[in-house]
Structures are given as structure tokens and as C-alpha cells.
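Re: weekly structure request thread

Next one in the queue (212 aa):
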Amino acid sequence: MPQLKPGEISMGTTIMAVQFDGGVVLGADSRTSSGTYVSNRVSDKLTKVHDRIYCCRSGSAADTQAVADVVRYHLALYTAQHGEEPTVKVAASLFQQICYDNKDNLMAGIIVAGWDKVDGASVYEIPLGGSIHKLPFTLAGSGSTFIYGYCDKLFRPDMTKDECIEFVKNSVSLAISRDGSSGGVIRVAAITEDGVERQVVHGNNLPQQFLG
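Done, posted below.
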């Protein structure tokens, strides 16, 4: 499995996405770290690759930014050639192909989520190694190990958009409270047929957690 190269920046992160009837909600912390040094405390790990398709990035900041740029280019080309918007599945397949073909050189864990007129709302995870998994919700990054049990217990497939937003905020907040590589603000994006709604939860407004 690839390791960070000398001087390369790791995002040591918490990212997640949740599907609901009519859309998806993505969330992430904003801390980018290099070892114990926090190189950026307000980075945006929710990256737009098309109008209603976003990705969450974890791993090497440089690798994931480069892969997202390549996918964004190909999706724009797809739209121009076919005269229609790409599906989330097409975007996820592009991410998967790039990550798999370069699995020995990339350190990139990606979550792709969005809404399209063919499949509606969908969430895909592309972990290290380049496999692809369609899931009702998923999480990744160093902070995810602290909240798998919490998310497995509280996730419901019939949640509303507002319930999903609160679920994401609480989950990422819990990860931030336990994971030294996650921190900063929480960025949230809710994607539906009507478009994208972005939110930022600042540190002083994060849900409070018991820290012992």
C-alpha cells in the first residue's frame, strides 16, 4: 500500500456521506495536517466535480486534489460530448479507474455522492486500493474509526434531509473530539435535484461531546 512521500501532506481527516430519499448529505472536518503540524485548519475537503456531484477527499491532499481535477475535466468533456449531465455512477467509476490504475502511487480515499436524473441520490466509496462500493452511507479517514459504532447504531434509511444533516454534524463532531488529526470547522453539503446547499459549523458552534 502506498505511503506518504517526503514532504507530502496528509489530510488525517473525517469524511462521510449519507443518502436520503431525494438527495445526499456530505460532511467533513477541515484540518489538514503534516505529522503533528496543522498546515491548514480551514481546508475544504468537499470538492465539486459536477453541478450535483461532489467528492470527499482523504489521504494525500496533493493526490486527491489531482485526481479530483482530472475527474472534473472528464465530466465536463462527457457533458459536452453527450449533451447530458453525467450520473454519479459515471463519476465514481472515473475515480475508481484512476485510483485502481495508480494504486501503487496514490494515497487517496474518496467518497463520491450526488444526485442525477437516472439513479436519483447515490453514495459511492473508493477506498485505498481502488475498489468501489455503493452504500446508503459511508465514512472514511482517520477519525472514522472512532465513530463506526455510533453511525451503525443511529443510521436509518428513512431519515429526512434535516435528520441527515444533524446526523453528519454529530458524527463528525464526535470524531473531532477523539481524533487528533481531525479538527477545525465542519463543512456540510446537501445535494438534491434543486441544487447544492452548503453549511459551515464553526468550532464554537459544534455539538458538545462528553470528553471525560
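The chain has a mean pLDDT of 93. DSSP finds four helices and twelve strands in the chain.
Next request, please.
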